[in-house]
Write a structure and sequence with these properties.
The chain is an alpha/beta fold and 294 residues long. It is built from eleven helices and ten strands. The structure holds S-adenosylmethionine.
Length: 294
């Protein structure tokens, strides 16, 4: 993500300064044509994604493809499916980490786990799971809380490439210091090294962590509800959507949520000011954990 942000420095200078309104207006029209073309030809709907973030990523791809205009990218994306795949990777922003925001997992352990213990069977949906670190983090937490055996975890993302990585359970060893620190800060009750085997510059998670996990492609914008869940975690995904799209996805979550089910969002996200906000009460305001109450 950091690399993508830096690309904004490479956007045409006049546009960065916003002093050439006509050029900016034209660029916005081209971006609308691009997202409309992607939707109609490839079926991915980025039409209501937040514009500043889209612009940065589109310009990153324009330069990476050796192009210089949005119009050039439109042509390439419509005629070259491998270019669409590369753009999809840029637009879907896959930044993630093991026990990302450790205090979220700490709050989940303390405030949600006791409720889950009262259920005979627990269905959990990780929407926008990226390369799966969040899913393995939850699987570890559930194993430590003796809940894993009665859980079924559905881990979905729009991007097939990240799902393949998630399914493999193989991650770079270089992240291990951060992983271990996060695991401890998240209230881990064992030692992180119990859960993986190191091989050269990678580590692979114990297969038992994947046993109750189904990884599948699902597009939050265009696909329907596919089950009813006790827990839905969608962290750091809605932040890239505008308010219209956030409302649409929140309706999807409400349609997919059991009464008294738990919704977990990212730090900078909230259900409060969406169309379905009144259906939830706060379980932990800082960690953006909510309970469905109507
Ligand atoms: C920044 S990552 C967040 C990963 C993880 N939830 C976390 O918090 O670490 C955002 C993920 O949302 C996925 N995503 C973006 N748009 C989506 C959509 N319309 N449907 C499903 N997933 C989407 C991206 O592919 C990406 O993997």
């Amino acid at each position: 993500m950091a690399a993508a942000l830096h690309m904004s420095e490479k956007m045409p200078e006049s546009l960065s300064l916003a002093d050439d309104q006509e050029k900016l207006d034209l660029e916005l029209i081209e971006i609308q044509l691009l997202t409309e073309g992607i939707y109609r030809h490839h079926g991915f709907d980025f039409r209501d994604y937040s514009l500043p973030s889209m612009r940065r990523r589109i310009w990153k791809r324009i330069y990476a493809e050796g192009l210089s205009t949005v119009a050039g990218l439109i042509e390439k994306v419509l005629h070259d499916s491998s270019c669409m795949e590369r753009l999809l990777l840029d637009l879907s922003i896959n930044t993630t980490a093991m026990f990302r925001d450790p205090t979220f997992y700490l709050a989940f352990r303390r405030k949600v786990v006791p409720v889950l213990h009262t259920y005979p069977y627990v269905r959990i949906w990780h929407a926008g799971c990226s390369t799966g670190e969040e899913v393995y983090s939850m699987a570890i937490l559930l194993q430590e809380e003796s809940l894993y055996d009665r859980c079924r975890i559905y881990a979905t993302d729009i991007n097939e490439a990240v799902l393949q990585k998630a399914k493999s359970g193989i991650f770079p060893l270089a992240t291990m210091q951060e992983n271990t620190a996060n695991y401890i800060a998240a209230g881990g009750t064992g030692t992180f090294s119990e859960y993986y085997t190191a091989r050269y510059d990678h580590f692979i998670f114990r297969p038992s962590l994947r046993e109750n996990v189904v990884f599948a492609q699902h597009n939050l914008v265009t696909d329907a509800s596919f089950n009813i869940f006790n827990v839905i975690l969608c962290r750091n995904v809605l932040i890239y959507f505008n308010s219209v799209l956030q409302d649409r996805v929140q309706h999807l979550f409400l349609d997919s949520m059991e009464m008294f089910g738990t919704l977990g969002l990212g730090r900078k996200e909230s259900v409060r000011f969406t169309a379905v906000g009144d259906n939830y009460e706060e379980v932990d305001a800082d960690e953006k954990i909510y309970r469905r109450i109507r």
